[in-house]
Amino acid sequence: MAEMVQKRSTIVTLLLAGSFIAILNQTLMITAIPPIMNEMDVSPNSAQWLTTIFMLVNGIMIPVTAFLIERFTTRQLFLTAMSVFAFGTLVAGLAPNFVFLLTGRVIQSMGAGVMLPLMQTVFLMIFPVNKRGSVMGLVGLVISFAPAIGPSLSGWVTEAFGWRTLFFIILPIAIIDIIIAYFVMKNVTKVSKPRVDPLSIILSSFGFGGLLYGFTSAGNNGWLATPTVIAFIIGSISLTMFILRQIRLKHPMLEFRVFTYSIFPLTVSIGMIAFLGIIGVETLIPLYMQEARDFSAFESGLVLLPGALITGLMSPLTGRIFDKVGGRWLVIIGLSFMTVGSFLFTILDDKTSLPYLIVVFALRMFGVAMVMMPVATSGLNKLPKHLIAHGAAMDNTMRMVAASVGTAVLVTVMTTAETASKQSGDPFPAIYGANMAFLVLSIITLVGFILSLFIKNTRPADIAEEDAEEIEEVQESHEQSF
User: Fold this and answer.
1) Distance of CA 75 to CAs 126, 173, 190, 282, Å?
2) What start and end residues bound the annotated signal peptide (predicted)?
3) Residue 424, burial from CB neighbour count under 10 angstroms (0-12, 13-18, 19+)
4) Which of 98, 216, 349, 385 is most buried when burial is the number of CB atoms within 10 A of its CB?
5) Separation CA 81–CA 107 (nearest Å)
6) Cα 336 to Cα 225: distance, rounded to the nearest angstrom
7) Which pLDDT score, from 0 to 100, does residue 348 have?
8) Phi, psi of 210 (to 5 degrees)
9) 300: closest CA among 318, 287, 314?
């Protein structure tokens, strides 16, 4: 038993470390963009692709992960994903020009997109129902803490050592993770060798990729810009064909029937709103501080740091509470904090202090820590064992789409309101634009709070006996590998 627990802990550590550095890279480049623009002589619209392309390729890879988890062993998939990520990190760190740097980011994100769904699936397989909350709390730490600390770490490292150092900090961690995993990683997912359906992969890539690009383009170029409209048309048609094909296939690449199970659609919707809130606020605060108030990128990162630390401390604790009381009240209370924090950001002015920004962001992130993993675990707990990988992939795909959609909408609202404010003679149009964007985010968060009232409590003890028995069968079968 002690050996089994030790090996299980090793797998958890490896997956957490790999996923942490993978997700950290989503926001790691935000405050490093200005010096890269200067060094490589690129425009702001081109430079922002260093962040956008990472999320775009992530969004394409995540739906494919459910198929990959069934096709390859845990060990094969983890080692391959981390090796691809490490190679991309090396390419980006050594990039002689912007094209190579962007290529490195694409390669990074191909590996990173596999890590989070793989981690969630493995954790749900190797832990019994009554311990899932605690371990998924660690997943919440990764999802919330990593992207929140990215801008802070990036600002400090870039200012002190240069932007290339960001990649050379990540690279050795990835290599050590790969070396240890080579010797100790065990296979815990069931390999069913589903048939490769190239058309599904193509439609998925054009569908999710097209929509993600469309929403990103809308934030940068406007909703009626030619690239935006073309991307939406291609994405919508491809995604519709992809969904219809998955419903007809006996062994689909991504199982959309997960939405027919209990509260899963509700928990996915709330998770989308929560993740949109993380990325949205982390986008708007630096824009407000640097464009409207002339704060530095490093100061913007410092405002986000306490909230990130609170999330890191709270997520494991939230997981333990989930195991005892279930997810309903955690999610309701968490969304209450998020909603209040969002509305407090709608009254920014030219004298708003740094302590105010720090406290309100921390308040909001306190709520995020109570929402992200409890709501995801509540939904995934209701799925039968053969759909867990598909549920995890679907949940993460929808969150990525929400982050891209939400950021595009919020940036568009901000710029539109700023333009209208300038025309009306407002002395602080950028501040007005930020307030309007936060107002939209507040309303969206309030909708999330209302949805949370419909979640039924999902303590492990409350799970239907047949569901518990089915999940425990997975636990028993995989304990053989320990």
Assistant:
1) 14, 18, 12, 34
2) none
3) exposed
4) 216
5) 10
6) 37
7) 93
8) -65, -45
9) 287
Give the sign of the dihedral formed by CA 170, CA 172, CA 173, CA 177. positive
Cβ neighbours of residue 115 closer than 8 Å, sequence gap 6 or more: 15, 18, 19, 22, 23, 81, 82, 85
Pairwise CA distance, residues 105 & 93, whole Å: 10
First to last CA, the chain: 9
CA dihedral 35, 38, 44, 47 (to 10 degrees): -70
Phi-psi region of 446 (alpha: psi -120 to 50; beta: other; left: phi over 0): alpha
Torsion over CA: 167, 170, 176, 180 (sign):
negative
| Residues in Cβ contact with 252 at an 8 Å cutoff, skipping those fewer than 6 apart | 200, 245, 246
Amino acid at 313: L
Residue whose C-alpha is closest to residue 30's, from 145, 154, 158, 183:
154
Yes or no: say if 372 and 275 are a contact pair by the CB < 8 Å rule: yes
Q: Which amino acid is at 214?
A: G
Output phi, psi for 128, to 5 deg: -70, 165
pLDDT in tens, 289-347: 877 888 876 787 788 888 888 887 888 888 888 888 888 899 999 999 999 999 999 99
In whole angstroms, what separates CA 207 from the centre of its chain?
19
Task: Show Cβ contacts of residue 228 under 8 Å, excluding neighbours closer than 6 positions.
Answer: 214, 217, 218, 221, 222
**Highest-confidence segment of 47-61, 134-148, 376-390:** 376-390
**Tokens representing 320?**
């333990």
Q: Are 133 and 319 in contact (CB under 8 A)?
A: yes
Q: 358: which 2 tokens?
A: 């720090």
What span, in angstroms and rounded, lies between the C-alpha atoms of 79 and 57? 19
Could you give phi then psi for residue 143, rounded to 5 degrees? -65, -40
**Tokens of residue 172, six digits:** 């050795």
Question: How many helices (H) does the chain have, and how many strands (E)?
Answer: 17, 0
DSSP letter at 196 equals P
The alpha carbon dihedral of 455, 272, 343, 214 has a sign of: negative
The answer to whether 371 touches 341, Cβ cutoff 8 Å, is no
Question: Given the structure tokens 């708003």, which residue do they identify?
Answer: 352
Q: Which two three-digit tokens encode residue 179?
A: 């070396």
- Going by C-alpha positions, the residue among 27, 292, 49, 39 that lies closest to residue 152 is 27
Nearest to 139 by CA among 274, 16, 270: 16
The pTM is what?
0.79
Helices (H), 222-327: 226-248, 264-287, 297-325
Give the Cα separation of 56 and 231 in Å (integer).
13
CA distance 346 to 432: 9
